[in-house]
Amino acid sequence: MSEALSHIIPLTEDWPFPLCLLDRGSDKILWVNQAMQEWSGMSSRRLIGKCPWDVFSVDEDVAAMTKKCADSQSAITIRDCEIKLGTPANLQICHLTAYPTEAGIGLSVLFTRPQNKDSSLGGQVVSGMGRMIAHELKNPLAGIKGAAQLLRDDVSTQEGRSLIDLISSEIDRVRRLLDRMETLGDDNAEMNERVNIHEVLRQARRVIQSAHPSLSFTERYDPSLPETIGHGDSLIQAILNLIKNASEAVDNKGEIILETSFRAGVKGREKDGQYARYLPIEVRIIDNGIGIASDQQSQIFQPFVTTKSGGQGLGLALVSKVAQAHGGAVEVTSRPGQTVFSLLLPAPQFSQD
């Protein structure tokens, strides 16, 4: 056993997810942790010397990730991989990450949340509800906008008029969103606008902060990020929902951090499963509230599941649907004192191959 390998094992043996170390040239397994043995049903003695793709089968483009990792010396993550372990009926959905180490190539398997295997369920429910409520909402929205326009004539301050203009623009955006709720996320939906994600974040922040002036926002944006392709109104709604959740977590008086960054190596598989696209644009909404219990994190993107008293459980389901409609993904990590929602989006004509 090499000295480098002897340093790795004590840190990773108890890692609760399958993990193995591969030879950089041949992809043969050099070491596995206990979780890999339990998941595969094979001892380390049987696994060492095998190729991982002989233990569980994946698509060819997924199997090529370890060579790409070795060539580029950078980590590569492919999300929502279909992995067949043993019989074809034993299909599991996992995130695979290959990363370079001093001793070889590390390969980790992270099981996705149960709902990801049928993530279309949330979208179907949200679309169905959209068909039912869109007509009922348009009438009161028209009345609200009319009242706002009348009120504007009686407001003399620039700040007051600015807030009324914000109300009017939000009513127009919601009406457009209602028009699209039937098709949002469907294959025929038009998602071809060039969208500056920073403009989306600023608009959403302004809406929330106008309702809760005591909220403190910190914005950390990467100005080099490219635009994404999609639908601006639905992205604003998704981010509004995430910021609203964060504001409620801090009781509308704490700090919320809005961040963007370039995240390399993450792929999301298309609906037809034929290929995966990179998701380099990451938007993070961070709050310092009480956090989300670990047993609830696996369910919160499902319709009608909520951690809030009196909540309807549709906000995060809509966020998930918007992410899917854009070919992206949404993630959550949470502990007491910090919750991070990450929205991952594609960039036009971006490739790392």
Number of helices: 12
Structural Rg? 23 Å
CATH class of the largest domain: Alpha Beta
Low-confidence stretches: 4-10, 113-125, 184-188
Helical proportion, percent range: 25-40%
Largest sheet: 8 strands, mixed
**Structural category:** alpha+beta
Task: Indicate the proportion of strand residues.
Answer: 15-25%
* Shape summary: elongated
What's the architecture of the largest domain, going by CATH? 2-Layer Sandwich
Name the CATH superfamily assignment of the largest domain. Histidine kinase-like ATPase, C-terminal domain
Order of helices and strands: HEEHHHEHHEEEHHEHEEHEEEEHHEE
Average residue pLDDT:
79
According to CATH, the fold-level topology of the largest domain is Heat Shock Protein 90
| Overall number of structural domains | 2
Measured between the Cα atoms of the first and last residue, the distance is 34 Å
**What is the β-strand count?**
15
Layout of helices and strands, plus pairs?
Elements: H1 3-12, E1 19-22, E2 29-32, H2 34-40, H3 44-47, H4 52-55, E3 56-57, H5 60-63, H6 65-72, E4 76-85, E5 91-100, E6 105-111, H7 120-152, H8 158-180, E7 193-195, H9 197-211, E8 216-220, E9 228-230, H10 232-249, E10 255-262, E11 266-269, E12 276-278, E13 281-287, H11 294-297, H12 315-325, E14 329-335, E15 338-345
Parallel strand pairs: 4-11, 8-10
Antiparallel strand pairs: 1-2, 1-6, 3-4, 4-5, 5-6, 7-9, 10-13, 11-12, 13-15, 14-15
Helix pairs in contact: 7-8, 7-12, 9-10, 10-12
